[in-house]
Specification:
This is Nitrogen permease regulator 2. One of its GO terms (molecular function) is GTPase activator activity. It comes from Amniculicola lignicola CBS 123094. The structure is a single chain. This protein is α+β, with helices and mostly antiparallel strands. The strands form six sheets. Strands 1, 2, 3, 4, 5 and 6 form a six-stranded antiparallel beta sheet that branches. The chain has a three-stranded antiparallel beta sheet with strand order 17-13-18. A hairpin with a 2-residue loop joins strand 15 and strand 16. The longest helix is centred in the N-terminal third of the chain and has 22 residues. About 35% of the residues are buried.
Amino acid sequence: MSTRGIKAIFFTRFHHEKGSRVLHQVPEGSITRSTAPAALRTPIVEVEAIAAYLNPTQQFCDRLLTFCTNHHRVIGYPVCIREGKYSRNEFMFNWALVVEESLADWAAYGEVVRKMGRLLRGLEEQGGFLSREEETRGVWEDESLSGGAYGGGGSKVYALCEMILEDLNNYAECMIPIDDSNTINLKLFPTRSPPPPIHAHHVPLLTISLTSLTAPISSDLTLTRIIPFINGVHSVSKIARLADTDLSLTRKAVQHLVYYGVVILLDIFSFGAIYAPTVEIGGFITDETVQEECARYIRVPRISLGRNIKIGSESERSSTSSDTSAHNRSPSTITATDFADYRTGSIEHVYRDVMTEEDGEKISHETLITLYTSLRQGLTLKNFVLENLTLLENIDIRRFITFGVIKGMLYRIHKYAITTSTFASIAPAPMSTTTTATATIAGNNNDNGIAGVGVGVVEGGKLRLNSIVSSTHDVGLPLMRFLDGMHSFDEICTELRMSEAEVDRKVKGVGDTWVVYR
């Protein structure tokens, strides 16, 4: 939510004899010209251009009405109360605010206007809050009246506009007592963008600490079961297996957390991955505060005798062998669940009582800058570590990469496979020259290296496979559907539950295939 997003607030009335008038405006002179000392020299919005929309016909009353003029957006909620006690049996007013036309999140302000219009309607119907003030102050007697002239001087409506403008711009909420039984409570709720699709290979990382919560975060059973396994290490697929939950439900639960900013998504950590700096690395180089935060976060704690510290989480230590390659971890990794906030805030170290300056050599700022700027395209993380063994002493490499990604200093260069081979190219030839066959394929006797049952054609005495049904995975052609350049190796490894080395070997067994990085 942008700060000071509201440029002006004004209140208009339609009089059966005087017509439509702006009775209150904050700041002075923002809608109609005013002679007040603090009035704006030029109105933000010319009232002549919007007069027809301020108090429209009854068909448009009691609904949100917005329009743009002079690069600003006016949001109003015209109200028409039909009662016999009023002149011509109706009382029409409009409480509106002005924001910049370019403001993308204007819908949140629209909800405030809608609520305020309904509140003022209720106050008027209950005790004549608006009409009584007009009668006692003689608002319609001065023909030269110009909004701000009447705006001050103890008007409750003007005071409401003034307080709402300041409180919403400064605090995004306000609570204003009207009388003993009525209070105005308004809050700007930001409109959140739809969450991105959640894939099985995504790695969720909590941005807040949930250990301090006394009540369950949700009554959703899937959400409750998966939260203990969200540690910035496990992929969504692995979380579903560890929590014994359905994968589709797990993806929806993670998507729910992402929507509310409780979780961010990372890539699977692998020493075969490639990372490179972004333009944000310049801010890191000049910001010593972020450098200090980074040094605390990535430093491997020195374990002193008599101190009981567990490195890594229980779920991390119980990782199955099938995910070892896809979830490579350094032996000194501390689970990222214990840390809070990201990007805009600091990541506090939970082992602050252990990690003191006396525990080891401090990581210098120069070392951090050198390491982050040494990452580049074409350099795998494994080779990066081998090239900087001395500088990486006492540094958790996983945390080093995670911190850079969270702060936006690093981006992942993904690996994709593209093949020109199609299902048509491996389709059976005419029956006169080929014979369909089914064969049991040993693990080392076929190009794809899968032990299972192969279905294909015989050409020239040689079996050419059309598909392979693995003995461990009941799928046909498990690899071919990923070789269109749209699926990263992270996704392939996760979906097929194979290591990157295995996928590499199988990709090489497919003819006319290229591996690209982007």
